[in-house]
Amino acid sequence: MFQNFASTQKWELILPLSRLVYFSENQLDPKKGSALSQLSDILSASNRNNKLANITGALVFDDFWFIQVLEGERDVILKTFERLKDDDRHANISLVELIDINARMFGN
Ligand SMILES: Cc1cc2nc3c(=O)[nH]c(=O)nc-3n(C[C@H](O)[C@H](O)[C@H](O)COP(=O)(O)O)c2cc1C
To answer: Is 46 a pocket residue for ligand 1 (Cβ < 6 Å)?
Structure first.
């Protein structure tokens, strides 16, 4: 039921959208397995939670940095941001922007 909200135009009109962008330092620990398997864990939790919360976006990474875009209802993306800020798989999280938007850039 919740997931259908993603395709419901009416819902998008009722709830104003915001976009949050941050970057952080990659702290993936080689002792905890390959980077690929640790990223896969992050992505599966993100996909599951973000779909339920009607959050879209993108996660870009290399050996040193993460850059993430989160789009959705402001309160919802802030709640997600607060949760992921405490994650020790990255550090020194820097907020780049938090703005209201008229339309999503990402459709995932
Ligand atoms: C770089 C990075 C990006 C993340 N992005 C998200 C995200 O977009 N959504 C999310 O729910 N969790 C994200 N997480 C994971 C959260 O910090 C947290 O582990 C997860 O939300 C816990 O979900 P669970 O309680 O369902 O296991 C991210 C973690 C890292 C390190």
So the answer is: yes
Instruction: List the domain boundaries for the chain.
Output: 2-101
Q: Is the CB of 87 under 6 A from ligand 1?
A: yes
What's the fold here for domain 2-101?
A: Alpha-Beta Plaits (3.30.70)
Instruction: Quick: pLDDT tens for 41-93.
Output: 999 999 999 999 999 999 999 999 999 999 999 999 999 999 999 999 999 99
Q: What's the chain look like in SS3?
A: CHHHHHHCHHHHHHCCEEEEEEEEEECCCHHHCCHHHHHHHHHHHHHHHHHHCCCEEEEEECCCEEEEEEEEEHHHHHHHHHHHHCCCCEEEEEEEEEEEECCCCCCC
- pLDDT band at 107; cut points 50, 70, 90: confident
Distance 96 CA to ligand 1 centre (A): 18
Is it the case that residue 108 has pLDDT exceeding 80?
no
